[in-house]
């Protein structure tokens, strides 16, 4: 071994050890590894920041913005909710959730797909009276399986495609991953559907600040318009959109107050006073196409853009206490709308404009992002929590889906590379307001992008120093008597063993060149071995820290570290057994 190879091995081994120690965040560890590699001469100074200009950084960041736009639209949640009455068993609900997550994960970032569907899982669990833990881990694993089906489904596929382009001059195309990934997804989902019970039923042990202050009895007023989906239909049709979590306390028809019976036929200009959590109220009002109370807010002569909604508490010194919304005329005097009110221990039935506000009431105000903080200060209102309130916010429904479809079509037909198509899609989300400009950079996972940019030159040091060829030689000596399927299985097993301790994209960056050199040592074609690395890196079912999807469900599901291998170990073995012959069929090694 040369000095450069020894140093490269030491830097990467030290980095992996710190990753396993889990004392520092992974982006900090990656940046420290880059600095050390440059200081030791393992990475040339003029290549230190080459990773930040790599296509993979653009693709991952853009995919996160696109995922945020699709999630914010609420269209997926609406479609699933309409199908809920037809699902009577938990297994049918779980099948729908897993299939939906897997299909979404094939086309958007898998953690984004999981985040889109998690609220639906909570709805199912609440209605079925079971713990969300029954749904969440199978959904997380389904997201990983779905990501294996396309080039942009998961970071390992993107990275391994870049590696193939460097080695052969031709990258993997969008759907080169589909034959093998589709088989694995089908087998994996079938296994999860029948063996989800391997995970013990858990209850969430700790709550978040947002849950601690979540208000369950907001009262809001909405009006039926000529464009409303429920005009001419019974009130019960509107309440169905809330899955039993919203009640109507009054229906106001002109000066007449009507009893909110489910069979009451709604007419144009009827005002309905609804009570429930803000998120469910938003689903009912947007799904029924009702108009919230308040007026259209304007900035000069134009409709005001970048509207948000904030929860706030009326303090002892607030000028709102003792006055009604009608007397205050907030829309005209302050440029904000009062959307909902919650009063502890009391069910509100009055129109919002007639309700006399009291100290301690929690209200939802709608206004411009820049003006609302000033209004809160002037009116002595206390922001309840730093969380997003969707009630009354501006959102698009079909535009995000259309943008995503255009990006996918452009890449599938070869009109644009993946990086360009998804960068354009992310830009489209911003231009058309699917993701507000102020939220755009919140959607981008900065730490993962920094980690990728820092790790690309560090991992490439194995190749430039000849270390990857050396490891391939060692593996070749181990597998020189193995048949092709044994050599392929060895590489995939090595990737599976590494990925619980490294980010999956980092695993491919480290293992990809080794796999290619390993294949060359044995005189095999590299494609199957690169695919094996991507599958191994993308199939992290053993720990809660190896992939963000697993981490995302750990808290809400109340899972323990030991719960993951209970379901994940047999699934990993199944994926390994099925992957090897499937790869040899679609990507022959000779």
TrEMBL record:
It is a multi-pass membrane protein. The chain crosses the membrane at residues 6-21, 28-50, 56-75, 96-122, 177-199, 403-432, 490-516, 528-547, 567-589. GO terms for molecular function: monoatomic cation transmembrane transporter activity. GO terms for cellular component: plasma membrane. The keyword Repeat applies. InterPro entries: Cit_transptr-like_dom (IPR004680), DASS-Related_Transporters (IPR051679), RCK_C (IPR006037), RCK_C_sf (IPR036721). SUPFAM superfamilies: TrkA C-terminal domain-like. The keyword Nucleus does not apply. It comes from the Bacteria. Gene3D superfamilies: Regulator of K+ conductance, C-terminal domain. It holds the Pfam family CitMHS. Keywords: Membrane, Repeat, Transmembrane, Transmembrane helix, Transport. It is found in: Membrane. Residues 206-290, 297-381 form the RCK C-terminal domain. One of its GO terms (biological process) is potassium ion transport. This is SLC13 family permease.
